[in-house]
Design brief:
This protein has 231 residues and is α+β, with helices and mostly antiparallel strands. Helix content is 28%, strand content 26%. It has helices spanning 35-40, 45-53, 69-86, 151-168, 182-188, 224-229, and strands spanning 11-20, 56-65, 90-94, 97-100, 117-118, 128-131, 140-143, 176-181, 202-210, 215-220. It has a six-stranded mixed β-sheet. Strand 3 (90-94) and strand 4 form a beta hairpin. Helix 4 (151-168) crosses helix 5 (182-188).
C-alpha cells in the first residue's frame, strides 16, 4: 500500500472581499486587515488609495473538496474581480491579505505568483518562504540558506515549483525528487511566451515534508544561475 508524504485535507476554502464605494444589493461586514499588512504583501500605493475609498463590502467565499479547489478558486476570483470592475471597486484577497491588482481575464492558475507572496519575515532568516499556497490545501514552500545575491533566482525556481504544485495537487504527492524547467518558471512568473519557452534548461531539487512545521522544505541540487541562466 502506498503512503503519501503530505496529508490531503478533505476540503479547502477561500474568501474574497469586494469593496465598493456604493452599497450593492447586500452588505457584509468582516474585519479587514490593516493597510500596513496589505502594503507589506505587495499592494501598491494606488491600490491602497482605492481601498480607502471603498467602504462597502460583499464577501465571496468558496468551500469545496480539495480536488476541486483550484478551478473553484480561479472562478471565484474571476467573479470577484468582475463584480469589482462593474462597480468601481477593488478585491481584497484574505489568503494572503492583499488587494488584487489584475483584471478578471488575467486570472490564471498557471501563473503561480498570482496565488502567493514571498513571506517578508523570511528575509531576515535568509530563506525563501511562500505565503498563500495553503488556500489550495498545500503546505507552504521553504528554501533554506538563500544568499541575498542568489535570492532572485531562487524566487524564480520557487515560482516554477509552485506552478507545478498547483497543477499537480492533490493527484500527485509533492514529496520526492523533482526537476523544474525554464518553462515551469516562465509559467509560474506569468510569461506570455511560456508555452514556447525551452525545457532543455532545468534544475533538480528534492522536496521533503516537515510535519512539525507543515512546510515543504526544498533542497536545490544545482546553482540556479548555472543550471538555468548561464549563457
Amino acid at each position: 500500500m502506498s503512503t503519501r508524504g503530505v496529508p490531503v485535507p478533505p476540503a479547502c476554502s477561500a474568501t474574497f472581499v469586494v469593496l465598493t464605494p456604493e452599497p450593492l444589493d447586500h452588505v457584509d461586514d468582516v474585519p479587514l486587515p490593516p493597510p500596513e499588512l496589505l502594503a507589506r504583501n505587495g499592494t501598491s500605493a494606488e491600490a491602497l488609495e482605492r481601498f480607502f475609498r471603498c467602504e462597502h463590502q460583499v464577501v465571496l467565499q468558496t468551500q469545496v473538496p480539495t480536488e476541486e479547489i483550484a478551478p473553484a478558486l480561479r472562478d471565484t476570483r474571476v467573479r470577484a474581480l468582475q463584480l469589482a470592475s462593474d462597480h468601481d471597486g477593488v478585491v481584497l484577497d484574505l489568503t494572503p491579505p492583499r488587494v488584487l491588482e489584475q483584471r478578471a481575464d488575467e486570472v490564471s492558475l498557471a501563473h503561480a505568483t498570482q496565488w502567493y507572496v514571498s513571506d517578508r519575515d523570511a528575509l531576515a532568516e535568509h530563506v525563501v518562504r511562500t505565503d498563500g499556497l495553503e488556500q489550495f490545501g498545500l503546505p507552504e514552500v521553504l528554501v533554506p540558506e538563500v544568499s541575498p545575491t542568489n535570492r532572485a533566482m531562487v524566487d524564480a525556481v520557487v515560482a516554477g515549483l509552485a506552478h507545478r504544485l498547483i497543477e499537480e495537487w492533490p493527484a500527485q504527492d509533492p514529496v520526492g525528487p523533482a526537476t523544474i524547467t525554464l518553462r515551469d518558471i516562465a509559467y509560474g512568473l506569468g510569461d506570455a511566451e511560456a508555452s514556447t519557452t525551452p525545457t532543455s534548461r532545468s534544475l533538480d531539487l528534492t522536496v521533503t515534508y516537515d510535519a512539525g512545521t507543515h512546510l515543504l522544505r526544498v533542497t536545490l541540487h544545482d546553482d540556479p544561475a548555472e543550471a538555468l541562466f548561464a549563457p
